[in-house]
Amino acid sequence: MKNHRLLVDRTPFCTLLLWLGFAWAISPGFAAKDRPPAKDEAAAVFHDDPVYRIEIELGEPEMATLREYHWPGPGGNPDDRPSVSATVREGTNVYQKVALHLKGSAGSFRSIDSKPGLTLNFSKNIRGQTFHGLERLSLNNSIQDPSYLSEQISRELYAAAGVPVPRATHAQVQLNRRNLGLYVLLEAYNKQFLRRTFSRDSGHLYDGGFVRDITEPLDLSSGAHTEDRSDLQRLATAAMDSGPTNALTRLGSVLDVDRFLSLLAMDVILCNSDGYAMNRNNYRIYHDPVVDRLVFMPHGLDQMLGTFRCDTSLPIFPPVEGMVAQAVLQSPEGRTLYRQRLTELVARHFHVEDLTNRVQKLAARLRPILAERGSGRGANFAYAVTDLQKRIVERAESLREQLAVVAYDPNGPDPLSGWKPREDFGHATLRERAEPDRPSTFHIQAGAGGAVGTWATRVWLDTGRYRFEGRIRCLGVAAEPGDRRAGVGLRTDSQRMKHKFTGDTEWTDTAIEFEVTEPMTAVELRCELRALRGEAWFDQKSLRLKRL
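Below the sequence we write its predicted structure tokens.
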């Protein structure tokens, strides 16, 4: 009886414990740690299986509606795209009342009577209807990528780097029995993707639109309270108020900095010059309610590895336009972490042999489709695949060279290092020599007929004004008549010698001053002999760089 009374008396307390346990269970911390990930019903779509053949049927009224639509240009409302109902067939599967609209923007939009980009929503009109588990998908016409592989290769690399991104594969498409050819099939940025990638799908999902930063009115693709954009406002405030010493601290209160560093590094590795960092374009942002942080994600990856606005020699510290990228890279800590992340991702994931083999494997899967009559741009495919592999090799070499650049402290006690000889023109002899009064010198001698010889090193420098100085000796240096650039001296890759020596000189101090206007710029410092004949010595220990 006592035990029974005790149980009854404590019922309110037990009820309270149950409610507290429930509240804890639905808290962000619980969801992040213990909530099982959503079942990935569409995983099989993105295996390297035979390419899907998708047949789309539209009636004449639907075709007429789509013929009237034209891309509205920058600033246009993507919600104005008319949606029509289509029947879709794939194998023995028939999908009814599939919502279809045209997609694409400045470079990729094509009319319904050409090779249109298409978005198909299988569950909009029939709840629960999916294409092998996908509620919605996009069919990209790959007009700007004749290899059809840039999207898939790039997305696989972003995902490997820990950056959330929808997956890619391929499909062959027919529209009213007209063969449209090969398409890139993309998983959509929707709640299904958010459930798969994050623990919850209730946060705001923003569409970056066409060349817009976070201070502009971004379209909200998902999430409640469409009038509340305070999460973006807090990020913009943190980016604008961040100084060199507190940037990451302020940004970290609203931004997933770790993922942003990976996004930024992978953008640069893949030369994504049309993404958020370099062009404020082709991106999505999700406010993850579990951790209460904003996560940037890439979009539109069909022009990568030096095919748009840059080449494969893109600097690893390129000019950036996105205000969040600028805020991260303006701080010494941010630049250090970014360079570390880029170095790590190159070492882990950007392996030439693995990537070129992956390209070959995917190309073999697509080749039979492109060989079919009426498939489209099959003639360009082989060249495009070879060119993609070539650009991967070139980018890997550029990254290797840039990551080997010396990180020099202008205020440190050590002389410059990493010097390499280079014969730029004619016949020059370059070697390191020990002289009676100088234990280590760089020696250059012009051969018959004249020469340009250089000892050079590259250093990463922050914004500011610098002085490159050293000691020089020359013997019998003669210039060709009329050559104003000839002589012996110090220079940079963007600035000619200001103080040139000819004839015979004993050891003489010289210097050149220059300015760096962009954060973390790779500057090449040169010890140069440009002469018809003669020789020069540069005292290695005297070669220093000072910040003024």
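The two ends are 89 Å apart (CA to CA).
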